[in-house]
Each structure stands twice: as structure tokens, then as C-alpha cells.
UniProtKB/TrEMBL annotation:
Keywords: Carboxypeptidase, Hydrolase, Protease. SUPFAM superfamilies: beta-lactamase/transpeptidase-like. One of its GO terms (molecular function) is serine-type D-Ala-D-Ala carboxypeptidase activity. The lineage of its organism: unclassified sequences, metagenomes, ecological metagenomes. Belongs to the peptidase S13 family. The keyword Hydrolase applies. It is an enzyme of class 3 (hydrolase). This is D-alanyl-D-alanine carboxypeptidase. One of its GO terms (biological process) is proteolysis. Pfam families: Peptidase_S13. Its EC number is 3.4.16.4.
């Protein structure tokens, strides 16, 4: 009993003193020592969410590359500022006379960065415009994308998969998450490439040769690239493809999202009988234009849930830019977005300016840096502010998101709400774990190591599973070290030098 009281006193003093020492739980120390992860490659902070009782703290003020767990900062900052029910707008205006359903002038569309605007929204939008009496547009369609001031490149080029959706860059007039969709299917002895949105936003160069044999290996997938040699991008498909392959669909970064939006809108006008033969122009909403319709996105709560559960990089970029516009005014920039996230979170003293670099807000960055302490502060504040409603925004173990399969057959299933982050040499997981005792724990496990991919993930899984069965800090398994003592402390053993560097795997797109 006395031992437990003394332990709690030490724990309280350490926490109230801002935790300058490492706090090692004996079981966690054993798991770390047995893994291939070195102590300096690990930032770990586990505590009871509703109290200040710490289970384990290792390198909590050391900077680590966060990868996608940085999305927690952008998502929570926007939630604090705008609330669960915020919706993005896409405004429609007319400039000119509007008589008997005919616009003697232009239709103007202004995007405010709705990251979810997609093809299935277009028929609803056109129906709404028809309900306003629109029958014919004699002028052009003007698109105003000035709400964001971002670079013109379509892909972040973070890695070699430059056309993959996770590399898509933001735009105030976003559409279909900056991707173009097309299908490939055999017909009359050759392969046909068909755009799902017809129009001139990109060209197609189909160089596929049809061959016999099974649809396997090199005969199963064409080589796909995009040429930007001319003003209009060209989708290039090459290779030998088996005539036994079935129809398949592709989603790639090819052209500007506003061009795809324009073509989709124009096609739907023709489909629903609205006459239009103009062209697309980029310009700000002219003075005197009359607003006739507003399309609203889904609620912020659902969008940040998609951002977190599916680790959607484009959505995260839009969260950051939207907050930048709300705090510092349009046009928003990445710099404004970073400052806005820091400003909102630091109203509650959740970040350390000198030890946090948010960068682009999505995690596709080597410059982005956080500490496990700051992440734990954000997680604690989020739960205390929003409770279980916030938990369900994160991936639920064994149920959805990036940890659906990871803990599907585990004691952790339905007991953890987490955000993951993976890059080469980075494997992170943060969130909450509910033990069998009913105690909720805030968990931050950051691993930046050449063994992150496999050993880091294995270590995290073991710790999280162990935590589910954990009885609490009063079980006497916690030991404490000052930074000096920690440097001198020798773990039970370190097998990392005995293990060859594993094969390098490309990280999962949904985990970026």
C-alpha cells in the first residue's frame, strides 16, 4: 500500500513538473528491448485520458516525422474553429439579363475548396438550376478558383507514384479529388479506353497490343503514364494485354480538376436539355453578378472522419487551407493554413511553437515534425471537448479505416480508436485504447527507424494489445529514469545489430 502511494506521489510530481524524465513501465521496457527498435528511435507516451496518471513516457519531447498522424492537428483545429456542422459552399451566379429562362450573359461558379465535390453531385446541381428556371446560357461558364492560392502542379511528386490519388494537390474548384476516371475493356479484338467524363481536358494515346494467353503477369496490366509535353495532357497506355482480361476502372491524376468539373457540368446541361455552346473561362466573380444557387458539401464531421479513417491526403490539405482562409482571409496559402492551425491549437496551449512543424498538414513531408507530448495534449483536449463523438472520427480497430484489418482478429478489436501514419522509415500510431477495466488511455507511439515497417508495427501492436489487459499504474510495474539515468540505463538486450535490413516495401496508399 505504501509502495503504491509513493508511486502515485512520484508520478504526480513528474507530471506536474512537465515530465522531464522518462517513465518506463517494466513490461513496455521489455517489449522495446526485445524489438529491433532502438530507444532513440521511439517516441512513446501512454497515459490515462481522464487523469494525469502516466503509464509510460519515452522521448516525449524529441522530434519525430509524423507522416499521416499530423492530420489529427489539422482536423481538430478546423473542428474547434468551425464546428461539426460546417459545410463548404460552391456558389453559382449569373451575370447579365435573365429572361424567360435564358441567361443573356455568363454563368459563374465559385469554389470555396469543397474537397468532396464529385460526379454524382452534378445531376443534382443541374436539377437545382433548372428549378430556378434555367433553360439556356448564351454566354460562357466562368470558374472562380481564387479562394486558394496554390501552386499549379497537379501532383505533389512526393514519390515515384506521381499519378496516384494520394499525391493529388489542392484547388479551390476541386472535383473528383483531382482525379480522372477511365475504363479499359476489350472490344472486337482490341482494347478500348473510355473516359467516364467526355471532353477535351486530356487526350488519350492508346498503344496497347492485344495478345493471347492468360490475364496474368505482364499481360494483366498496361503501363500507364501522363505526358505534359503539350498544353493538354496526354494519357499514354502501353504494353501487351491479354484478350482474356475483363473490364477494369482506373483513377489517376491527369488534368486540372476545374476542367473535369466544367466538362461534367456541360455534359449534364446537354443531357437535361439546358442549351449551352460557350467556353470555359477562369476569372473572379464579376461585380454585379447575382447569386442564384448554392451547393453545400456534407457536414464537416463526416469529412474529417473520412480524412482520418481513410487517411485522405487531399482532404487534409483542404482542411488546412480552409482554416487559413477563415483565420487570415482569402486567398488562402499553405503558410496561412499552417499559421492558422498553430493559432487555433495554441489558444489551448497544445503545441510548442519551437518543436512543431505542420508543413502541408497531410503528412506527405519529411519536414513535418512533432513530439509525442504535443500529440498527447491534442488527443487529451479533443476527448475532453467532444468525448466519444471525437473517438468515432478515428479508425476503429477491426471495424473500419486503416486499422480495420490490423486488429480484426485481436483482443484490440472495437477497443481502439487510432490514426496511423506510414512513410519509408516511419511507422506511427496515435489515439486511444480502452482497457478491459474500462479505463481509456491516450496512446502515442512514434517510430522513426529503418525497421519501422515491420519491427515498429509489431512493437506497436504488442504494446496496444498489452494495454487492453493493463490493470493500471498502481500495479507497481512503472520505474522512472531522469534523462541522465536513461542514457546510462542498459536494456535487457538489443537484437537490432543481429538483424539484416529487411526488404523495402512501398507504403500503403491509405496509410499516408
Amino acid at each position: 500500500m505504501i509502495k503504491n502511494i509513493n508511486l502515485w506521489l512520484v508520478l504526480s510530481i513528474l507530471f506536474s513538473a512537465n515530465i522531464s524524465a522518462n517513465i518506463l513501465n517494466k513490461d513496455i521496457e521489455y517489449m522495446v528491448a526485445k524489438s529491433a527498435i532502438k530507444n532513440e528511435e521511439l517516441g512513446l507516451y501512454i497515459k490515462e485520458t481522464k487523469t494525469n496518471r502516466v503509464v509510460s513516457a519515452i522521448n516525449i519531447d524529441k522530434l519525430f516525422t509524423p507522416a499521416s498522424v499530423i492530420k489529427v492537428y489539422s482536423a481538430y483545429a478546423l473542428l474547434l474553429e468551425l464546428g461539426y456542422n460546417y459545410r463548404w459552399m460552391t456558389n453559382f451566379y449569373i451575370k447579365g439579363r435573365f429572361i424567360n429562362g435564358i441567361v443573356y450573359g455568363d454563368l459563374i461558379v465559385k469554389g470555396y475548396g469543397d474537397p468532396t465535390l464529385k460526379s454524382s453531385d452534378i445531376p443534382k446541381i443541374v436539377n437545382s438550376l433548372k428549378a430556378k428556371g434555367l433553360k439556356k446560357i448564351n454566354g460562357d461558364i466562368i470558374i472562380d478558383r481564387s479562394y486558394f492560392s496554390v501552386k499549379s502542379k497537379d501532383s505533389s511528386h512526393f514519390d515515384k507514384n506521381i499519378y496516384s490519388p494520394y499525391n493529388a494537390m489542392p484547388d479551390a474548384m476541386m472535383f473528383n479529388q483531382h482525379t480522372s476516371n477511365f475504363k479499359l475493356y476489350p472490344k472486337n479484338g482490341r482494347y478500348v479506353v473510355e473516359k467516364l467524363i467526355s471532353g477535351d481536358s486530356y487526350k488519350v494515346s492508346n498503344q496497347i497490343k492485344t495478345v493471347g494467353g492468360s490475364c496474368a503477369g505482364k499481360r494483366a496490366n498496361p503501363s500507364i503514364s501522363v505526358s505534359y509535353a503539350s498544353a493538354t495532357p496526354t494519357l499514354v497506355l502501353k504494353g501487351k494485354l491479354s484478350n482474356r482480361c475483363k473490364k477494369r476502372y482506373y483513377k489517376y491524376i491527369i488534368t486540372k480538376p476545374y476542367k473535369e468539373f466544367y466538362n461534367a457540368l456541360k455534359n449534364e446541361f446537354h443531357k437535361q436539355g439546358i442549351k449551352y455552346n460557350g467556353r470555359m473561362r477562369l476569372s473572379r466573380v464579376p461585380s454585379g453578378a447575382k447569386k442564384i444557387f448554392v451547393h453545400y458539401s456534407d457536414r464537416l464531421e463526416n469529412i474529417i472522419a473520412t480524412t482520418a479513417k481513410k487517411s485522405n491526403n487531399l482532404f487534409a490539405r483542404h482542411l488546412l487551407l480552409t482554416l487559413g482562409a477563415k483565420i487570415y482571409g482569402a486567398p488562402s496559402t499553405i503558410a496561412k493554413g499552417r499559421k492558422a492551425v498553430e493559432r487555433v491549437l495554441n489558444r489551448y496551449h497544445l503545441l510548442n511553437y519551437s518543436k512543431t512543424c505542420i508543413d502541408n498538414g497531410c503528412g506527405l513531408s519529411r519536414s513535418s515534425k512533432i513530439t509525442s507530448r504535443s500529440m498527447a495534449k491534442v488527443l487529451d483536449h479533443a476527448y475532453k471537448s467532444y468525448g466519444d463523438r471525437w473517438l468515432n472520427i478515428l479508425s476503429i480497430a477491426g471495424k473500419d479505416g486503416t486499422i480495420k484489418r490490423r486488429f480484426a482478429q485481436s483482443v484490440v478489436k472495437n477497443r481502439a480508436w487510432m490514426k496511423t501514419g506510414t512513410l519509408d522509415r516511419v511507422k506511427n500510431i496515435v489515439g486511444y485504447v480502452k482497457a478491459k477495466t474500462g479505463t481509456l488511455y491516450t496512446v502515442v507511439i512514434l517510430v522513426n527507424s529503418k525497421y519501422s515497417r515491420w519491427a515498429g508495427s509489431a512493437l506497436q501492436n504488442k504494446i496496444i494489445k498489452w494495454l487492453v489487459d493493463y490493470k493500471g499504474v498502481e500495479d507497481g510495474n512503472n520505474i522512472f529514469f531522469t534523462p541522465k539515468e536513461q542514457r546510462e540505463h542498459k536494456p535487457l538486450w538489443d537484437i537490432s545489430d543481429l538483424i539484416k535490413e529487411p526488404k523495402v516495401f512501398r507504403y500503403d496508399e491509405g496509410d499516408l
